C-alpha cells in the first residue's frame, strides 16, 4: 500500500453518497484550470455546497418540489403553507381531502382556486412543521427535549457541571423552534439507565451502562401509561415483556395470569424483575419487565411494600414481538414497619406513581435507534449551532415534527448502504404506515422519490438498474426489439442495459426499468450532507456511526468515564467547517480514484490540494488562551490537504516523478512547521534529491532535519545515518556529534531453522522445534524457551507495552483537562499524540511514574485491571494479554526501567507507539519473585532492521533493558 493511504482512509471514514458539489466537480474537471483561492468561501447564510444556502434544495432534481428555495402557497382546504410545486400541492390536497376535518370544497371550487403565494421566499420552521402535519402525526415528546437539555453527568457523582456546559443560542426547544436561552452539556444524567435485559428483537442481553457511557434516554408519549384505580393504594400499568425467553412449547393466551419475581443476582442488572407464566405448572419464565419500569418498582418489591400480579392482554403481531401485559401493583399494609422505613417506602411509592403516570412503557425496544438519532441531532445543534445556516437549522428542526413512522423510516434507510431502495421491499414492524411515512419524508425534503411519473434522465440510471434482479433484467431484454439475452451474469446484463440506455436505441427503456422497480426512494442530497456533518461533529471522526449507540446498549463496548470540560470550539467559524468538509471530499475523490486507477483524477486532487494549502496561512505554534489548542489542527482543512499531499508524494515516487515529489515536499515543510510528519517529509526530500543527482542539497536537507525539534524517533535516526553516509570528505570534514551514538553495536543472536518456503515476497514459514509449521517469531520463542535459557514470552511487538501504559497511566489519560474530551464516545483524549499531553499533566504523570519507580507498579496494575476491565481505551487490548502475563512483565522489568519507558511514551506517544521489538521475554530467578526481562527483535532471511526499530533498540539500551536481535537463517537439512 502507498505510504499514507491507510491513514487517509481512516480520516475519510464513511464515504458520502451524494455527488460532488458543482463547484468542486468543476475544479476537478480536466478541462478546468485550478482556482487561486479556496472555493469554500461562503457567507454565513450559505451552506456547504449543495446544502449551503436558500437556493440549494434537498432534492437533486425532479419535480419533487422539496427544494428549500421553492415558492410557498396556501392550501385551499386547510390553509397551511406548502411548497408550490405540482407534486407537493396534489399530494397535500389528497391528504387534506381524505382527512375530512376541514370544510369540503367542490371540484369546481378547487379548479378555480388561485393559490396565493406567500410573501416569504424562505421557509420557516413553522412552514416545515405545518407542511407535514397530518392526522396521524403524533405529539412531539417534550420529555425527550428535557432529557436532551439535561444531558449532563459528572464522571464521579453524576451531578451536572456548570463549567462543562455550553450555552447555545440555537438550541431546539420542545416545539421544534429555535430557543435563545437553552443550555446543554455533553454529559448524561446519573439516573438515566439502559434496558438491562435481552432485546426482544435480537435476543441479546443488554449489559449495564456505566455513567461514563452515552445511553439512550427513554422517551415518553402523550398516551397514558397506566390506569389509575386508586392512586393511594393500587395502580395498573400497561407495559410489555422484553427479553423473550419462552419457546414454542409455551402457548400464550390472552387474559392468562402472570407473576413477577425479583432477580437481584442478575449479573447485568441488580434491579431486574422476571415475568413468570402462571398458567404453566412450574411458572415458566417469559422474560423481563422493561428496565425503566424495573428500576422504580424493584426497591418497592425489595421492601415488600407492594404486591404485584398481572395478565397477558394481547399477543405479539410477529413471532419475536413484545408481549403486551398489564400489571397491578397494590400497596401493602405497613403493620410492622418502623417509622423511618415507612417514610422511605412512602417516598418510593410517590416516586413510582409519578413516573408511571408520565412514562410510556409500551414503546417498542426496536425504536431506540430513533431516540439515539434525535439525541445526536439535539447535542450537535446545541454545541455547534454556530456552524449551521438558518436554512439548515430550520431543516433539521423539522425532523422533530415528523411522525414516529417518518423518523424511523428515515433513520433506517440512512443507516443502510443504498443509495436507492425499492419501496416494495421496505418492511419494518415498528413502522405501521409506510405509505404515509414515505410521503411525509418526501414533503419535508428528507428523501427523493423515483417512479414512472418522474423524468428518469434526472437520476443516475445505473443506480436504478442496480436495483433490478437478474430475472427482471432478462425479462426487460426479451421485450426489446433486439434480443440481448445471451449474457447470464448480473454485471453483464446490467452493462447491456446501461449500454442500450446510453446509446438511445430504446426510448422506452427507462420507463420499462422503473416499471419493474416500482417506486424507489433515497436520502435527499441536503439530508445526506447535513446528517453526514451531524455525525462527524458528534463523533469527531469518520469511523464511528449510530452503531456505536447499539454497541454501548448491548454491552459490547464500554467507554471510559471522563468529564467534558469545553472552553474552545473545534470549529471557530462556519467557514472553517466548510473548508474542512471540502477537503474531506477531495480526499474521498482521491481514494476512489486510486481504487479505479484513474491517475488523471489523482493528479487533479494532488494539484488542487497543493493549491489550497499554498493559499492558507502558515501554521504557527500558538499556545495562548485566546487561540484554540494546537491539537485541534487535525480538524482543519490544511491537515487534510497535507495528508492528501503525503499520499501524493508516494504516488509520484512510485512513478519516478521525483521533481513533482520534491516540489510538494518543499511546500509542505515551508507551510507546516509544527508537525511530527516533518521527519518523514524531510527524509523523503533528502532521498528524492539524491535520486535526482543532487547530493549536496540532499546532505543539507538531512543536516537541517537532524536538528529540527519536530523530527523525532526513526526519522531522526535515519537522517543522522544519511548525514554520516553523505558527509564524506571533501563534502564535509567535521564529524557530527551524534556519530558514535548512531554507530553503536547491537547485540545479535543467530539461530537456524528448516524453511518450508524460500520465496521472495512471501511470509517465511519454518518447521518449529515441535515439528509444527510456524513463523520466525514463534520459532524464536521456541528457541528461547528451550535452548535460550527457559524464557517465557509473547510475540506482542508494542501491543503489550501499550496495554501496560494504558492501565498504569489510566488516571492520567482521563484526567479533567480542558477541551481534550468533546464527545462521550472517545477512547483517548484528543491530545494523546501531541506534546500537550505530558505538559498539561506533568505533575499527575510524574506522581504516577514515581509510584512505578518505587515498586508499586504491580499493585497499580491489578487495581486498574479490576476497575476498568473491558472498558475501551486506546492501546489497551483486554483479550490478547492476561493479567497474569502483565503482572509477570511488570515484576521482571523492574520499577526504574518501566518508569523510564512509560515516561518516554507519555512525552511523545505518537513517535514511539510503533517499532518496538517483536518479543517480550521474562523469567523468574527465585521463589521470592525476582526476575528479569529481555526484548528481542526477530529478523528472518533477507529482513533488515528499519530505522524506527534501530531507534527503539538504542533507546531501550539507554534505559538498561536487555535487548538483542535474533536472526533466523535457513539450513538445507534439519540437524
Automatic annotation (TrEMBL):
Keyword annotations: DNA damage, DNA repair, Hydrolase, Magnesium, Manganese, Metal-binding, Nuclease, Nucleus, Zinc, Zinc-finger
One of the protein's GO biological processes: DNA repair
GO molecular-function term, one example from the UniProt record: phosphodiesterase I activity
Magnesium among keywords: yes
Domain UBZ4-type: 72-101
Pfam families xref list: FAN1_HTH, FAN1_TPR, HIRAN, VRR_NUC
Biased composition, class Low complexity, residue ranges: 26-43
Gly residues: compositionally biased ranges: 44-65
Primary site of residence: nucleus
UniProt EC number: 3.1.4.1
Keyword DNA damage: yes
InterPro entries: Fan1-like (IPR033315), FAN1-like_euk (IPR049132), FAN1-like_TPR (IPR049126), FAN1-like_WH (IPR049125), HIRAN (IPR014905), Rad18_UBZ4 (IPR006642), tRNA_endonuc-like_dom_sf (IPR011856), VRR_NUC (IPR014883)
Catalytically driven reaction(s): Hydrolytically removes 5'-nucleotides successively from the 3'-hydroxy termini of 3'-hydroxy-terminated oligonucleotides
Cofactors that this protein relies on: Mg(2+); Mn(2+)
Signal sequence annotation: none
Domain of life per record: Eukaryota
UniProt subcellular location: Nucleus
GO cellular component: nucleus
Region: Disordered, residue numbers: 26-65
Protein family according to the UniProt entry: Belongs to the FAN1 family.
Functional description taken from the UniProt entry: Nuclease required for the repair of DNA interstrand cross-links (ICL). Acts as a 5'-3' exonuclease that anchors at a cut end of DNA and cleaves DNA successively at every third nucleotide, allowing to excise an ICL from one strand through flanking incisions.
Stored PANTHER family: FANCONI-ASSOCIATED NUCLEASE 1
Protein's recorded name: Fanconi-associated nuclease
Species in which this protein is naturally found: Urochloa decumbens
Source taxonomy: Eukaryota, Viridiplantae, Streptophyta, Embryophyta, Tracheophyta
